[in-house]
Amino acid sequence: MSVSPVRIGWIGAGRMGTAMARRLVAAGHEVTVTNRTRAKADVLGALGATVVDTPRELAHCDIVFIMVSANADLVDVTSGEQGLLTNPSNAPRIVVDCSTVSTETSSAVRAACSARGAAFLAAPVSGNPKVVAAGKLTLAVSGTREAFDDVRPYFDQLGNGVTYVGDDEVARLVKICHNMMLGIVAQAMAEITVLAERGGVQRSAWLEFLNNSVMGSMFTRYKSPAFVNLDFTPTFTPTLLRKDFDLGMHAAYELDVPMPVSALCTEIVKSAIGAGYVDDDFAVLLLEAARGAGLTLVAENVAVDDGLAVR
Fold this sequence. Notes:
The protein is of the alpha/beta class. Helices cover 49% and strands 12% of the residues.
């Protein structure tokens, strides 16, 4: 007996959404995609996906992934006028949200899905489009174990690290904790890189040493080209980082956890935004650290391995 292919829907064709959906299309899955600006979805259409105009038109799909920018966007694409859950005849079996949103919004969307008989997985991701292309995306997932097991094969095609972290919205806290760590490590890396350069060490030499030491990581390696060559093409902006720090500090208040280092980094990120670094990559924290030291940085213009060879 033949088994019908799983119909996959995809909402959100921004930089990350496109990179992720591209992997499912390339794997040969039947993918139907929609985006507020249709032209962005047409990029996936050219690769073999079906493009539709509204999330409502994905209600017939078995599994629908969502990758949008903010709380209001998630609510709109699920319960808005043309939302995924507004088709009276159909609803997806499982809805998977990969966006970074608040616990409160996630919980409300989970309830809306449940009312339509759809399981909901919170599945925020760690990475950027280049990380996705390299097959190194990681995901934290929460919801029912049964729904997670159903979607697991598709998670595995999106990246190389998927972790089931529990029920309900706990994946949201995992992602916020991750991004706070991201900001704190980036700030420490920026300060210490400035210290090394101030002492006469080339940034490329210092970072090569760091990346080959026990303190090196995938993160320090893939941020090294930006630090060395001052290329701040955005993968994640200070504005988005501040949003996650704000969410994390709110959670810390609610859970009564003192976080003095995180509080300081929140203010440093706010200062970078105030200095005009809104649309650059958050690696511009390096420039703010240099400014504080009265140091003017110059791009070294040398090749630097970012550790993200495509597999």
